[in-house]
Amino acid sequence: MSMTIKETLETKVTSTCDVLVCGGGFGGISAALAAARMGKKVILLEKQYILGGLGTAGLVTIYLPLCDGCGRQVSFGIAEELFRLSISMGYEDRYPDNWLDDNDPSRRTEKDKRFEVRYNPNLFAILVEKLLLENGVEILYGTYAVGVSKAADRIEAVIIENKSGRQAIAVESVVDATGDCDIAWFAGAPTDTFKQGNILAAWYYSFGEKGYGLNIVGCCDIPDSQKTATNQVELLIPKRFAGLEGKELSEMTQLSHASTLNHVLRKRENDPTLVPTSVATIPQVRMTRKIVGEYTLHDTEMHKEFPDSVGMVSDWRKRGPVYEVPFSTLYSRQVKNLITAGRCTSVTDSMWDIMRVIPCCAVTGQAAGTAAAMTDDFTSLNVEGLQAELERNGVVLHEKDLK
Ligand SMILES: Cc1cc2nc3c(=O)[nH]c(=O)nc-3n(C[C@H](O)[C@H](O)[C@H](O)COP(=O)(O)OP(=O)(O)OC[C@H]3O[C@@H](n4cnc5c(N)ncnc54)[C@H](O)[C@@H]3O)c2cc1C
């Protein structure tokens, strides 16, 4: 059936801000914190009633490495600050004592001990909310960004919906940290989607005879280009999901719940006391939509120096690679006051698997938030000024400067 209805809308502008951050995952948290610390009026909107995105509501609680696996820390600034915050009241697993407690650099290359950790999602969400409030960020929970109002090549307001109905927030600059590049898509900026699709995941927490713990059900995928006869992934179901359509995400969530139940029933054969204590409350999709920015970073560009680098990331899957992240991967000149952060920046499909993880989202978040506090036109930003500001806040920009 093809039917349309006509709506006539007059939407009230209920707030204004210097920097509007859409999405409260690690990308958005880092962006909001960076922009607020520069004295800007920042609103962070989040459709859930908890901060952290996949890293809390999605129960993906392994803060992957800040180091290159060869003894060098490569991600600094807010990426490190949030790492330390996540375990400031205790860790769950993988504690990197060789990085945090030991001054012997030779221990930093220890097998299976990279600068990573597993944290508690509830503690992190509460602690990071407190941190943002202390820094003056206004957090709007239960708020969906549903569209934009544009004037020429700029966003003048973001349309939101929450319990108070439909409203608009007038903005100077916008950080798209929705993970799905929703704002760029609404604004008509060039975007691209993940061709391979997402496999089903059903990570959940449980409590039983062995105590409390995370169940990793549905491991990570391997990019098609890197698959061989011996490294195939065991799928929960033989189906993939784009992650950008309402009905499909609902179906995926139901299938994920069914997989959780199967897993619980299997575990109960050995431990009848086991119960799931939390299941994900947002869909566990890894890669959906990204911006096509001024530059697109490729996974072959490891160890390459970029003059407009805004920080560095490593490859969580293997030891060695270090990538400088160019500022030009964060925006498109087609919408001048919009910048992206987190898992929707401009990378090739093979680089996406590296850039989507928590420390990388924090690196791009800090850069995007700092830039958004400095300008409402990313095409004419003084990149050296941005880099100086990032360095003042602890970020190391180039591999040649690593110790
Ligand atoms: C199964 C799985 C396992 C993973 N394992 C790991 C791991 O072990 N370690 C690791 O580091 N990374 C892992 N990742 C990846 C990582 O967790 C995420 O990519 C990362 O946390 C993304 O952060 P983000 O801020 O870019 O996006 P998200 O965490 O997706 O946050 C985006 C936020 O924006 C909100 N939002 C979205 N659209 C709107 C809108 N229109 N209006 C308002 N709010 C909106 C969402 O509710 C969400 O809170 C995994 C991912 C998955 C799915």
Short description:
This protein is α/β, with parallel strands linked by helices and 403 residues long.
Describe this structure in words.
A hairpin with a 2-residue loop joins strand 10 (204-208) and strand 11 (211-215). Helix 2 crosses helix 8. This protein has helices spanning 26-37, 78-86, 97-100, 121-134, 182-186, 246-268, 349-355, 358-374, 383-392; strands spanning 13-22, 42-45, 62-63, 117-118, 138-140, 144-151, 154-162, 165-176, 191-193, 204-208, 211-215, 275-279, 289-291, 309-314, 322-326, 338-340. 25% of the residues lie in helices and 21% in strands. With 403 residues, it is α/β, with parallel strands linked by helices. Strands 1, 2, 5, 6, 7, 8 and 16 form a seven-stranded mixed β-sheet that branches. A three-stranded antiparallel β-sheet has the order 11-10-12, covered by helices on one side. Flavin-adenine dinucleotide is lined by residues 22-28, 45-48, 53-55, 58, 60, 62, 64, 144-145, 177-180, 182, 201, 203, 282, 284-286, 342-343, 356-358, 361.
